[in-house]
Amino acid sequence: ALAGQDDEDGPVPAGQNPATNRVELAASELFTVPGLATAYHTSVVVNGEEFFFSDSGILWDRALTSHQGKPSELVDLGFSRRTGSQLMSVLQPHFAPGSYD
């Protein structure tokens, strides 16, 4: 949860910000169909570690590997009380190797 929001650990007290894990969205343009849409590859970055979904399941890396090191956009989403390791633990069962389409 972002600072100031409730989560399973309870509400964040007013004036306190225990959320110390920076969260960003990395996006890279894949292709554009003129007049229709643009497709993007996206991933989540927590404290500089990228988390992304591939044929191998959810992977992580420190070099923005899935964007060849340079995403088109890196959007700051704020801070979370959760770590990248916690993100992996929660999502891995839902994004198994071989389930990428």
UniProtKB/TrEMBL annotation:
Residues 21-101 form the PPPDE domain. Keywords: Hydrolase, Protease. It comes from the Eukaryota. The keyword Protease applies. GO terms for biological process: proteolysis. One of its GO terms (molecular function) is peptidase activity. Belongs to the DeSI family. This is PPPDE domain-containing protein.
